[in-house]
Amino acid sequence: METVPIQNQVYEFLDRMAIKGIIPQYTNAMIPMPRREIAEKLILIREKESNLTNAEKDFLLKFEKEFIHEINPGLENNTVLLKTPVLKNIFSDNEKYLYEFKDSNLTCYAELLASIDHRLSSGDTYGKSNVTLAEAGFRLRGTVNKKLGYSLRATNGKMFGDRNLALSDNRLRGNVKFNDLKDDYFDFVEAYLRADLGWFDLQLGREQTLIGTGYSDRLLLSNNAPVFDALKLDFHHKWFRFTFLHGSLVNDSTISSQTDLNKYLAMHRAEFSIAGILNIGLSEMVIYQRHTMEFAYLNPINFYKSSEHSLKDRDNAFVSLDVQIFPVNNYKLYGTWLIDDIDFSKMGTGWWGNEFGWQGGIYIAEVAGLPDFDALIEYTRLEPYVYSNRLAGNNYTHRNIGLGHHLNPNSDEWLLETMYRPFSCFRTWFGFSVIRHGMNYYNDGNFINVGGDVLIGHSDTDSETARFLDGVVVKTSRLRFRFVYEPFTNLFISGMYEYSHLYSNDGIPKTDDHLGTIGIFLEY
Question: How far is residue 203's CA from residue 149's CA, in Å, rounded to a whole number?
Fold first, then answer.
């Protein structure tokens, strides 16, 4: 059975239902999820519809139409553009596809994907500039014999306007055609096969994955870096889930092109749900470089940290613990502790090698009794040298972009965000964040490394101590408003306005920037 892309708003809905106590044992700490699991959650929510607001009932109805094939295929009534008269039901609330085929052995759904996104900037970083990004393609998904799921998403795009402003988007910064080849065109593809083998699912291909508990970003795997190809094993039974992932990465541009070493990420993760009020996740990851894949890291149940030691301590291993607690309905407490490296005998000494990442927050649904109005407050802190590594190429990165949180090491961030969803067709977010970052710097022509860059690890010439926020401290305050309006099912209009103010007491010029975007997205 195929999975549901991470961008789908159903995950936002399910998370809110878990916080309200309507679907216990749900966690958003790892997505995407198979369509059948999401359909099961929607069935549970329907059984408790009396606890939903009017807007939530409309959301539920919308998602039931989207997942009706998994809920009750006999009631499926999609609008198929290649099978119906022109414009008939094209502006309806039916789920829409360019083409569909269904029988007892095969399903196939094809969607036309198109978007146009216009961005305007004024201020000190980009000056007064603008860029328009136009993109079009298709998505094809389905199942074979109810056992083999497949998905292919491919798009091509064109830029019109300021290239530097366009490169502020990580999707384009990590695109080879657009960034490395300096072309005005760009392309993206995601594709995988996923086999249901009874007691576990096995997937091969490329698909964006999120792992972690944060809302500002995920500490373990985020969508900042480009998607990568991976082999994934997924076992899920009642309150327990185990996942193994082994992926192939692209080395950073700072690594000599003469090397023929390949870069890999191995990860395994166990999730437990206890009494419907506590979710616990334990993860272990390792970044390594070899000519071929390392068998020790292909073992899903191996302990990577010990294996890394036995393999001459030449890789970058991490462990993490994350929790989600639902003490009462409408409240969620959550946090993640990432351990990049640790020496207990040197705790509290400022030794550079004790590298931790922290993230925690509280999410409140229906703040002050206001229906459909939520708020969260979240704090993230990355100690110096987190994600980086003393050996070139072993940074926790893919094509120069961090696989985890968007913050560089030696940084922290406070985020306050409110969400208001008065209708199933209209969602809004308003957020304020403050970021502090300790930058590496030059002193009399000498480079001083304080652990502030994910691409630069510790070397023998660097200080043995690295205090948090050493270096040139830069502070950024950011105010952001976003909305998504869906006038008809599968047609989205989105907008965003952001104001950011960067300042420092260490000679860095102050900057003020305004950024606005408006976009139209079609999934027919």
Answer: 9
The pair phi, psi for residue 188, each rounded to 5°, is: -140, 145
For residues 341 and 319, what is the distance between their CA atoms, to the nearest angstrom?
Answer: 9
CA 179 – CA 177 distance, rounded (Å): 6
Task: Provide the CB-side half-sphere exposure for 367 (13 A, CA).
Answer: 13
Residue of 409, 10, 30 lying closest to 221 (CA atoms): 30
Q: Hey, which residues does 427 pair with through a beta bridge?
A: 484
Contact 485, 494 (CB under 8 A): yes
CA-based radius of gyration for the chain: 23
Enter the DSSP assignment of 74: G
Q: What is the pLDDT of residue 347?
A: 80
CB atoms within 10 A of CB 83: 11
Question: Which has the closest alpha carbon to 250: 222, 224, 229, 221?
Answer: 229
Task: List CB contacts of 350: < 8 A, sequence separation 6 or more.
Answer: 465, 466, 467
Q: What is the pLDDT of residue 242?
A: 97
For 361, phi then psi, to 5°, come to -170, 180
Question: How many C-beta neighbours within 10 Å does residue 74 have?
Answer: 7
Asked if 2 and 144 count as a contact pair (C-beta separation under 8 A), the reply is no
Residues 6 or more apart in contact with residue 478 via CB below 8 angstroms:
431, 432, 433, 434, 435, 498, 499, 500, 501
SS3 at position 115: strand
Tokens of 63: 């998602």
**End-to-end alpha-carbon separation of the chain, Å?**
21
| pTM of the predicted model over 0.85 | yes
Can you tell me the distance from the alpha carbon of 255 to that of 246, in angstroms, rounded to the nearest whole number? 22
Q: Which value, to the nearest 10 degrees, does the dihedral of the CA atoms of residues 141, 32, 479, 406 take?
A: -110
Q: How far is Cα 479 from Cα 432, in angstroms, rounded to an integer?
A: 5
Other CB atoms within a 10 A radius of the CB of residue 393 amount to 21
Amino acid found at 215: Y
What is the per-residue pLDDT for 458? 94
From residue 318, how far is each of 186, 297, 356, 398 by CA, in Å?
Answer: 33, 13, 10, 16
Give the pair of three-digit tokens for residue 149: 């799921």
> Do 25 and 237 contact (CB within 8 A), yes or no?
no
CA 235 to chain centre: 21
**Cis-peptide into 32, omega within 30 deg:** yes
pLDDT-flagged residues of the chain (< 50): 258
- In angstroms, the CA 56 to CA 58 distance is 5
Using N-to-C axis directions, what is the helix angle for 35-47 and 10-19, rounded to 10°? Answer: 40
Collapsing DSSP to helix, strand or coil, 157 comes out as strand
Burial of 227 (0-12, 13-18, 19+ CB in 10 A): buried
Give the span between the Cα atoms of 193 and 214, in whole angstroms: 28
Q: Any idea what DSSP says for residue 3?
A: B
Phi-psi region of 507 (alpha: psi -120 to 50; beta: other; left: phi over 0): left
